[in-house]
Amino acid sequence: MDVENEQILNVNPTVFLCKQIMPSLPMISNLSLDHSNVGVVSSYSSDWDRIKKDLTLQDPDNLSDSLFSGDEENAGTEEIKNEINGNWISASSINEARINARAKRRLRKNSSRDSGRGDSVSDNGSEGLRCGVTAPTSPKGRLLDRRSRSGKGRGLPKKGGAGGKGVWGTPGQVYDVEEVDVRDPNYDDDQENCVYETVVLPLDEMAFEKTLTPIIQEYFEHGDTNEVAEMLRDLNLGEMKSGVPVLAVSLALEGKASHREMTSKLLSDLCGTVMSTNDVEKSFDKLLKDLPELALDTPRAPQLVGQFIARAVGDGILCNTYIDSYKGTVDCVQARAALDKATVLLSMSKGGKRKDSVWGSGGGQQSVNHLVKEIDMLLKEYLLSGDISEAEHCLKELEVPHFHHELVYEAIVMVLESTGESTFKMILDLLKSLWKSSTITLDQMKRGYERIYNEIPDINLDVPHSYSVLERFVEDCFQAGIISKQLRDLCPSRGRKRFVSEGDGGRLKPESY
């Protein structure tokens, strides 16, 4: 017996395990192996003993894991029973080693994480794959498994759906104001009384002009002074408040009369809310100083600035003694001309002339009767002078593109009331020029002709031949490309009515011609 144990202890474990069991087989408990080859033999767990006991009860002949089968496997076994590397070993030790290797594989397949689920896997591990079911112990099975890994719970979402990446709480949850913890080491008594405000940096000269220019240009389109005041309050103007009137007046000098009127209203509304009277005085001082440069772009700048000063004094945003403070101290010719213009306008206002009419009433602010008179005067002056460019310029100065249909209507009425061919030809040339320059749009031209078509019965009462003249004028306008074919076809025509019909026996019809 001692000789047999000595032979077992002398077996090379690496060769023995590689040939008979598997490359990664752990140490065998009954063999005392060399520490240089394998290592220290560890004790087995209770699961190891249980599995080992079950496998011992099985047939030892069916525990082979070699790659050989049939006679080759049996032949190899007989040789191992007799001699391994010149050392003799008993068959019982080989069977016990096979049992240990089999138990080790069983432990690997049944991990401790899934041991309590009651899931079983076949010994060779291929039965589940053939059935198309992923083993619960495989990495893929663990990823697809949504159950709790601890085997507890009812399968509900973690934290009631409030957990996970990018989740701030359950749906509909309202967070209360977090109270300051007085026991916090970083607690400060003054932090409860802190007031946080957004600080807007003051605008410099370059940013000031770049920011305010589009605001004023948009104001010329909508004309709402309250919107401009709100936008200026959001800006930190600082010391640049006096630059607002300077920039607004400079832009208005290059615009139309209506823009200057709107600028005067803007300055009056901003004074007292966004800027003070001192800021207005500083701005006009700077305008008088910069008049030589402004006159290069706008030759009428001295007279226009004088009108702005007179309007500001009339609105109460400049004191009455502002002009008197410059007497005898002005060397610039343009500044002296501006102050003289303002003095003349203020003296005229004392005689009953309103100071708010220094720019006139332009655009939609004019009454309909006033616009009708202006257009009638424009056409009469054109028939006397024959200057189409001047008539076009005067029409644009009225700034009423929505009222151009009145000019078309009045011009055709003059053609119907005229007795010569000169008026017919001059009006045709005027309408053709205004149409080609897009001064009168298609819609306004169409509305003017439709008004004539609707009122031709009344016009015919005063002008008996108006139908025939209108038909000829409309046809010439169509040939010149002023109106479309559809508009030409809408022209009314008076049919010929006969007093006596053929076969009536000379009786007159009861209808009157």
UniProtKB/TrEMBL annotation:
Q: Name one Pfam family in it.
A: MA3
In terms of SUPFAM superfamilies, this protein maps to: ARM repeat
InterPro entries named among the record's database cross-references: ARM-type_fold (IPR016024), Initiation_fac_eIF4g_MI (IPR003891), PDCD4 (IPR039778)
GO cellular component term of the entry, any? nucleus
User: What GO molecular-function term can you cite, just one?
Assistant: RNA binding
Q: Which GO terms describe its biological process?
A: BMP signaling pathway; cellular response to lipopolysaccharide; negative regulation of cytokine production involved in inflammatory response; negative regulation of DNA-templated transcription; negative regulation of myofibroblast differentiation; negative regulation of vascular associated smooth muscle cell differentiation; negative regulation of vascular associated smooth muscle cell proliferation; positive regulation of endothelial cell apoptotic process
Where is this protein primarily located? cytoplasm
Gly residues bias spans: 158-169
- Which residue intervals make up region (Disordered)? 104-171
Domain MI, first and last residues per copy: 207-328, 370-493
Instruction: Report the locations given in the UniProt record.
Output: Cytoplasm; Nucleus
| UniProt keyword terms in alphabetical order | Cytoplasm, Nucleus, Repeat, RNA-binding
> What does the UniProt function comment say about this protein?
Inhibits translation initiation and cap-dependent translation. May excert its function by hindering the interaction between EIF4A1 and EIF4G. Inhibits the helicase activity of EIF4A. Modulates the activation of JUN kinase. Down-regulates the expression of MAP4K1, thus inhibiting events important in driving invasion, namely, MAPK85 activation and consequent JUN-dependent transcription. May play a role in apoptosis. Tumor suppressor. Inhibits tumor promoter-induced neoplastic transformation. Binds RNA.
Its family remark reads:
Belongs to the PDCD4 family.
Q: Which PANTHER family match?
A: PROGRAMMED CELL DEATH 4, PROGRAMMED CELL DEATH PROTEIN 4
Q: What is this protein called?
A: Programmed cell death protein 4
Q: Which organism is it from?
A: Capra hircus
Q: Which lineage?
A: Eukaryota, Metazoa, Chordata, Craniata, Vertebrata
Q: What gene is behind this protein?
A: PDCD4
